[in-house]
Amino acid sequence: MNQFQYVQPTKQKAAIEALVKNANAQFIAGGTNLLDLMKHGIVAPEKLVDINKLPLKKISHENSSLRIGALALNSEVADNKLVLAKQPLLAQALNAGASGQLRNMATMGGNILQRTRCPYFYDIALPCNKREPGSGCSALAGFNRMHAIFGYSDKCIAVHPSDMSVALAALDVTVVVAGPQGERQILFTDLHRLPGDQPEKDTTLTRGELILDIIIPDTPFAQQVHYLKVRDRASYAFALVSVAAALATQNNIITAARLAMGGVAHKPWRLSETEKSLVGKPVSEKTFQEAAEIAMRGAQAFTHNAYKLKLAPNILVEALKTAAGIA
Ligand code: SF4
Q: Tell me, what's the pLDDT at 235?
């Protein structure tokens, strides 16, 4: 057991200062991922800065946007009346994630920042560039059934595990963060990184930055939405592939679309070109199959995950059909 210091500040400024004072300190909230990482010996922080006393749990609707505090629990958000009325896609994605017990502990900020479930990342006996930069990637020639088909590098082929983040990527979300240099806002689609040459960096957050709020602008997509997740078990399993789909239609013609995929890349995979291709087209299976072809451009599989090249477009079509009400 590694010894570590534990502090529980009640002010945001004090929490950030407590973190930056020690280069090997980490924030902790629900702990549903970090404690596993500590138990497996993947991380060994010298100090935990518990942020649970910070006032970051509020869910409100203001300035035509839903504002969700980073410490709101996944289960609270999924059941919240404002969320269900304004952003049911988010509620669907939250309920598809983890288990009831975990959703009762996991926070919104922690869900966004959870780390990959690549099995080699969790096996400290094997090389992993994300855990130990420069050591190699065991998944490249290993059992890469769960791994990426988009946006990977020769340093890392892991995928981001969050369901909720796939919905957030589709919904034009902004994240408010605070750090030693003050506050800033980041587009959600710019928050997570592709692995490139630095797979150890999951996000574009800088040292000491803390997620405060998630802002979701009102959209015309409240009704025609669907989050579809395919996984090995009906519960408590990460996505093999998932799709967050949202449509706006008028007289059976698509006027706007939002789409993102999970389980396919190092970050939630927004499908902007596919969205554009849908606008002006009639709601039909043919339209959705053409969109799926566009979505899959550039996809490349490894030895054990070629099934994703068929599964992903099929799920995309099914998610769009359900969102459009023609399933
Ligand atoms: Fe590590 Fe990424 Fe390779 Fe998995 S895919 S072993 S996380 S470097």
A: 84
Is-above-0.90 flag for pTM? yes
Contact (Cβ atoms closer than 8 angstroms) between residue 319 and residue 166: no
CB 270 within 8 A of CB 260: yes
Task: Encode pLDDT of 167-196 as tens digits.
Answer: 999 999 999 999 999 999 999 999 999 999
Sequence-ordered alpha helix ranges (H) in the chain: 12-20, 34-39, 74-79, 81-86, 88-96, 100-105, 108-113, 164-170, 188-191, 272-278, 285-295, 307-324
Domains within the chain, CATH numbers bracketed: 5-52 (3.30.43.10), 224-324 (3.30.390.50)
Pocket test for ligand 1, best of 37, 116, 202 (most atoms within 8 A of CB): 116
Residues lining ligand 1, judged by CB closer than 6 Å?
116, 118, 120-121, 128-130, 137-139, 156-158, 199
| Sequence-ordered list of residues with C-beta below 8 angstroms from that of 36, at least 6 positions apart, any chain | none
pLDDT of residue 168: 98
